[in-house]
Amino acid sequence: MADDFELDTDDLSRRMDGAINALRTEFASLRTGRASGSMLEPIQVDAYGQMTPVNQLGTVNVPEPRMVTINVWDKAMVNKVEKAIRESGLGINPQTNGTIIMLPIPELNEQRRKELTKVAASYAENARVAVRNLRRDGMDQIKKAKSEGISEDDVKFWESEVQDMTDKYIKLVDQTLEGKQAEIMQV
Length: 187
Fold this sequence. Notes:
By secondary structure, this protein is an alpha+beta fold. The protein has 2 domains: 9-28 and 109-185, Orthogonal Bundle (Topoisomerase I, Chain A, domain 4); 37-104, Gyrase A, domain 2 (2-Layer Sandwich). It is built from 4 helices and 6 strands; from the N terminus they run αββββαββαα. The protein has a 4-stranded antiparallel sheet with strand order 3-4-6-5, with helices on one face. Helix 1 (9-28) packs antiparallel against helix 3, helix 1 packs parallel to helix 4 (152-185) and helix 3 packs antiparallel against helix 4 (152-185). It is elongated and about 70 Å long.
């Protein structure tokens, strides 16, 4: 008998937390009309023969709500960093002053805001899918234990535990999405 079966809910919870953290990271890269150093994280610069993130080539600061500055450490890299930002698709026109690159963040128009809310919704749906996949993994473990002989009561208990955890994380994804969409639509 496999009556000593116990689902590792801590592992399941940790993995679902990972899906939420990945969602928050994706949301941080969405430009909402306010300056944020995290919007530069996806940008890679061809430096010293390899692709390097911008934040490893200089100090990223947000001195004003609509301005990001990068103080590039190596003067030879300034033009490469500037070029990488122009080609990144962020829609920002960098201005250089010596080794400091200033990135004025333009206002978002209504159409762009709506597009960004759709992008945010797709990120949230990916997170929901990840949580549901983890739910399926948990349910598969329960089915396997059921075939090994755990009681029907234990099966129902663990299935409800996994479902409750899934519902909690799906609700968290929805709340995170609502917050991000409100932030994007804020003028």
